[in-house]
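Thread: Newbie trying to understand structure tokens

Hi all, I'm a second-year student working on a class project, and my supervisor (Dr. K.) asked me to get a predicted structure for one chain before our next meeting. I've only ever worked with sequences, so writing a 3D structure as a token string is new to me. If someone could post the tokens and maybe explain what I'm looking at, I'd be very grateful. Here's the chain:
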Amino acid sequence: MSRDNSSSQTGLCSGRSWGIYVFMVTMGLYIMTMAPSVIWGDSADFALKVHSFLLDPAADGHPLYVLLGRVFSWLPGELGVNLNFMSAFFAALAVTLVYLITKMLTGKNIPAAIAAVALSLSHAFWFHATITEVYTLNALFVALIIWLLLKWKQDIEQMYWLYGACFVFGLSLSHHLIIGLAGFAGLYFMIAYGGKRLLGWRRISIILAVFLLGSSLYWGLLLRWFLSMPGKSAEIVDIVTGRGHKEYMFSATLIPLLKNIGFYFAYLFYQFPVSGFFIGMFGFFKLIKNDRRIAWFFIILLAANTIFFISGASLQYNYPFMIHDYLIFSIMIGYGSNFVLAWTGEKLGRRTPAYVPYLLVFSFICLFPVLTYQITPVLSKKMGIRLASARPLPYRNNEQFFLNPSKAGYDGPRQYALRVFGLLEPGAIIIADFTPAVVLEYYQRVLGMRPDVELKYVQNVGDPQDTNELKPYVDKVYGTRPVYLADFIPENMRFYYNVKKLQKEYELVSLDPIYKIIKRQKQE
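---
Reply by user tm_fold:
Sure, no problem. This is what the structure looks like when written as tokens:
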């Protein structure tokens, strides 16, 4: 253990320098592997919200993200690229905070750097650091709250650290309400370390004041909704609390619950394959043994988030919400590696160069994830095992897209938009569901392509009774303008378009990747 101490205090190995190196290397990795523009679905939708400056306090509105996205939109270049860069920037800051947090827990630079590397290379975190998404900012807020609370723990009388944590917690709610689950762990931390000194009315008032100040953007937008929509209070409350997702989250039955638990550990292993997984588990047990209050803080932080999602929602589609957990687990990897390095150094003996244990652990932490992400898509395809269960889309290999976090050079949505707009006749109408529609809308509204085309979103998708508005809409507009369907991959039909009724009167002519809708000729 003395080896790290001796090297960590010299010259360029100061903690501040290490933090700068961590940020720069991580930022470089994410920029090199960043998507060249927006990708499908939510990514394009967030770009549209930023473009429209839509400040919405709904559960999926993310007003603070939109506000920050507006700032990043001022950078030169395409909006989608700038927002991808924003994700990378927030991700690199979160990784740097994980380094600082682990440095506080271990007192050493090397284990802290190992924790940072583990998070930066974890699949879900890396994936979302390269695209337009909200999750790296989520992670940044969680990491910042942890760091501020630990700084307060170092000197309980310096209350400004706690006030800062409360302000950041309030601010985070304007980004994503799900971070509110971290409040349970924060409350435990305040009771465990603050005790009776927090009971004074003055300190309680300041805590509440800074929290309300931090969350003022959210409450202000919510108040505007209530004032602008009188008599719709119940509807507003339903929207801001997730609409129908509430019932979905808490509709757990035994079999789906067990399935989710299995998915949870499978995803955790995929984030930190082999060495990272086992060192992280070891780190948790060591922290429980050495500092139970801190251990319980992290356990509550994990449990509040995990139980909420594992109780009902399918983790196959909601795994990004586990990024909070992966951030905490990476800290445990750093904490555990502190003891692994000490044990390895003792076993190798003094004749072995001091850098050998560090090199071994760093190699394993870096090598296993990178190899796993390269090999798994290939094995999945060769063995015929469908690990990526997402819908098929043009210009997207699902196994490669979802199982490998790097998005360097992936321009499938751009190819799709250019191809579609090149095929459409003047004044055409194209019918699409959300995932391809937002890509087309992004290229139309943000980049100015084909303003003559009308984009029609399909609603009520997946209706097993085929009562959605697709056929009535086609009946209404057919003959006035050319009409196209954005997607006719058979596997998608059951969930998105339900074209059985439409096909009785209309023919779908493939133009790859879209389909022109033409009325069938009546047989005499």
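A couple of things are worth pointing out once you decode it. The first strand starts at residue 429 and ends at 432. Residues 1-12, 460-466 have pLDDT under 50 and may be disordered. Feel free to ask follow-ups in this thread.
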